[in-house]
Each structure stands twice: as C-alpha cells, then as structure tokens.
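Methods, example record. To illustrate the input and output format used throughout this study, we show the complete record for CHK domain-containing protein. The sequence lines were provided to the predictor; the line carrying structure tokens was produced by it.
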Amino acid sequence: MSEASWKTAEFFKDAIVRDLSLECTDSFTITSFEVGKANEKTTGYMSNIYRVLIELKFDKGTAKPTSLSYIVKEKTDTAFGSGLVELMSVFPKESEVYEKLLPAFERLVQHEKETVRFGPKVLKTTTNPDTVIVLEDLSRGLFRMREKSFNLPVTDVKRILEKLAKFHAASVLYVEKNGAFSNLFAEGVISERTIDALHHNESLYSAFVQSLRDRNMAAEYLQPLIKFDGQLLRECCKAQQVHHSELKVLNHGDLWPNNVMFGTDDLRFLDFQTASYGSPVVDLLFLFATSATELMCDSLEELLQYYHEHLIKTLQHLQYCKSIPTYTELLDQMRRRSVLLLPPLSEAVAITMTGLTEPSDMEMITSEQPEGVALRKLVYNNPAYVALIDRLLPRLYELRLLK
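The corresponding predicted structure is encoded as:
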C-alpha cells in the first residue's frame, strides 16, 4: 500500500507559512519531519488522527519558532464509524466549521477586553488525492485533555457551559447577519438517513433495558425506558425537530470530555464533525449525560441556570433583539427532548466506565456473537455503572426528564 501523499515535508510548507504568518522573504528549510500518533491510538472515531513534528531552519535570523507540531485528521475506511463519513458529509462539514464558521463566530463575540477562541486554527484542508484537515496542535499552547473521559468536576463543566453559551450565541447572530447555515448542518448524527447505519445503538439500548429488568428496577423508572426499546433512534429523530418559534443554534454535536482541551484560563472545543442546527438542548443533554453524569443527580438545575445566564449575557452583548427563552422554557425544552439522554447514557457512559477504548472493543460489543452478548452483560452490570444508574434514574424522574 502506497504512503499517503500528505505524509511529506513538502505538503506542510504552505501550512507553516499560514501558521507563522510568514512573508515571501522568510525562506526556510525543513530539517526534520516526523509523523506519529496524536495520542495513545492513531485510529479515532470516523477518522485517523496524527501528530506531525517539524524542525525548521530559517535562511535569515528570526524570532519565529523553529520547532512545530500539527494535528492531522485523515479520512479513512478502517476507523470505527467510517461508514457514516460519506453519509454525514463529515469532512466537508468539519472543514467548513474550521475554515469559515469558527473565525466568523470568534469575530462576532470578541471585544476589547477579551479575544475569544472556540477551537484550534485550521492551517490546511485537502480532498484530493487524500482528504485531510491540518490543525494547530493545542498542546503547544499547554492545552490538555482531562484524564477522565466522563463525569468532570463542576468547575470544569461550568467552564464548558460558559464557552458553549458564547458559541451558541455567536451562531444565532451569525444567522441573523448572514442567513441560514448550509445544508451540511441540517442533520446531526441521528437522523432518518443514519438509522440503519446506527443499528448498534438499538442493540446496546436493548441490553441496557434488559439489565434494568434483570435487576428489578422500579416500574416508575423502568416503564418510560421500555417504550423506547427498538424505537430509540426514531424517537431521537422526532426530539430533534425544532418549532419555528424556538431559539436555534449551531450545536457542536459531540461535546464530551474527549472533545475539550483545557488551558489554565481558557478551553477549546475539538471535532465538529457532527455539528447540526437545532435546539441548544441537543448539546446540553449530551454534555450533561457524558460530562456531568454524577452532577445531574445534585446540580442539573444549577448547571442549566449557569448556561442560561451566560447565554443571555452574550446575546445581550451582541445586541440580539429577538425573543430569548427563559430558564423555565429552556428546562421545558429539555424535558420534551429528554430521550436524547438515552443514547449517550446507554452507550458512551457505560462503555467508558468499563474501560473499553479500542475500536476492536466497539466492534465486539455491538456483535451478536456470544462474545458480544457476554461483553454487553459485563458493561451493563459493571458495579460502578449500576450504582450511577440507580442513583440517576430517580433524579431524572423527579425532574420530569424520564416521563
């Protein structure tokens, strides 16, 4: 198999010029070029991810950095979820977010006292012969992911919510000034077009419900969940429909700890490949389910109030004159769309808490072979996960998020 065309020093020269804002007189030579893993594993969800290390030598003296690193996302047919890449136009969507939307959003919300950044800078995108996105390596700026892949502390969740409120508000103003987003953002991960490709979600949810039956979960908590068995994805499609009178935002679509990098005083979002236009509670429900699972038991209303306050603050700063949902209206939207909690709770949270991280684990847990059935039983009977669900379901019921 031939080496990908982007894995050459020559490919990165224009990205370097863009990154360092070089002039035509700033000539340089690449003295070292290395392609390696971006983290513990190269294969991500729907793409391959690499870190490229480069050493430069400038022909003239300069204060520009000479040790560089970049993150490369590469389209692949081998990553778990790769079947969705074409169906969801993942790379065109993410390229448009990085190239066009994030810079526009950042210009809208920045002011004299604050420069706002929502994600890494994009430095190059190509579709032929290889489809890749070259991004700023945020670790150069001392940004780091949290070690936990779920259930962050309240301080981290509030930092995410504050930045998310600004991102959502900026997207509202963008539409006011520029018109609707392109059709790339009409749908998220779960849609009528992707139901067949996401059939594994239904089998995982069925295993989750069966585990509750086996543990004799109280009927008032179990019955609302049973009615979605076999229909979860279609119900999620319905829940994402937005009434014309509701506030609509660009949702990140996959906002969990592995897609956030924290700096000392700021943070950045990663992976906009499932972004979609709709109700802000799409992002909020996914974030709460994956990043604040324990906190939902005690602090969900406080967290929602915190997001709402920052959403209002940013929209008012942007002189948005149309109706803004009240806190009560936002909570009501969450209740009407609470089925969107169930896919991440029964999949991402359960799997992550069991420590399954490899693509082969995902393939196995969705298999109907005896090994797959046994692995699902292991996941849904994990004592830590059982304790979390037993604590969470009564609270969701109390908040009317389970009715």
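Annotations derived from this record:
The longest strand covers residues 48-58.
Residues 9-133 form one domain.
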